[in-house]
Amino acid sequence: MDQDYNGFISRIKKMIGIDLSLYKEAQMKRRITSLRDKRGFKSFVLYYQALKQDDTLLNEFIDRLTINVSEFYRNPKRWEVLQEKVIQHLIKDKINLTIWSAACSTGEEPYSLAIMLKENFPEIRANILATDIDEKALDKAKQGIYKEQSLKDLPEIYKNKYFVQKNGLCYLDNHIKKMINFKKHNLLADRYPQNVDLIICRNVLIYFTDEAKQKIYTDFSNSLSQNGILFVGSTEQIFNPDNYDLSVFDTFFYKKDNFS
Ligand SMILES: C[S@@+](CC[C@H](N)C(=O)[O-])C[C@H]1O[C@@H](n2cnc3c(N)ncnc32)[C@H](O)[C@@H]1O
Predict the structure, then answer these.
(1) Total Cβ atoms within 10 A of residue 218
(2) Burial letters for 42-62: b for 16+ Cβ neighbours within 10 Å, e otherwise?
(3) Whose CA is nearest to atom 10 of ligand 1?
(4) Residues 230, 233, 235, CA angle at the centre, nearest 5°?
(5) For the residues of 169-219, what is the DSSP string, one character each?
(6) Rounded to an integer, what distance in angstroms lies between the CA atom of residue 213 and that of residue 209?
(7) Mutate which of 12, 59, 133 to test ligand 1's pocket (most atoms within 8 Å of Cβ)?
(8) Would you state the pLDDT for residue 28?
(9) Which of 163, 167, 201, 216 has the fewest C-beta atoms under 10 angstroms from its C-beta?
(10) pTM of the predicted model, to two decimals?
(11) Are strands 196-201 and 224-232 parallel, antiparallel or unpaired?
(12) How far is the CA of 184 from the centre of ligand 1 (A)?
């Protein structure tokens, strides 16, 4: 057991509220150790003392923990299923939908959804909450300015209609920005919203331990309304979804079966 590292993660939990013991250890330790070494600290004790006193170092450290990679319409085939099958299912008997993009990073995911709904389901009244643990990512999301590369899978017609391109950057339309309510939320510690019709949580569960994942699936299931849908990332298939009152609705989509 590495006492230096274990002591470090328990101090970090007290300092910033992020429990690194719930993230897969090998991967997390490698990321943090390489940053610590780059900054010239020989132990985690010394690194922690520096983080306590230096906000720039601390921000860089938080940046390293949170992997913010995202893009519009990530895995486009899944977005087709979302549009053609999942949303149709959700609006069978209502037009008010509560949607939660959890671990939304810099906003590409909730904005993709807002554009898709506006274009294809103008009758839906969507209340879209988008959350992440990383405040810097959320600030970026609110700005809605993106590199062209992150729009590569967004249908061309949406790109032209909802973005203005200037100096190599793409500026998102204000109407779309206003459709999203961004908020800080830690999936491992905070209360989950209730009665959610669609939860999109993609490409973050892979970083967590199995124990943490099980807790999150249970909390997601409790969060979903009856017949609500959980949409996960393309490497994040849930084994034994019935343990959480979920069933496979389509590949990487799970339906809440009943209230337990
Ligand atoms: C790779 S991005 C995924 C972005 C988007 N969902 C997608 O699939 O394109 C992972 C995000 O998870 C966030 N994250 C990591 N740990 C978290 C936690 N405990 N609670 C909420 N968000 C977390 C990170 O800040 C990061 O923005």
Answers:
(1) 14
(2) eebeebbeebeeeeebbeebb
(3) 204
(4) 130
(5) EEEEPHHHHTTEEEEE--TTTSPPPSSEEEEEE-SSGGGB-HHHHHHHHHH
(6) 6
(7) 133
(8) 94
(9) 167
(10) 0.95
(11) parallel
(12) 11
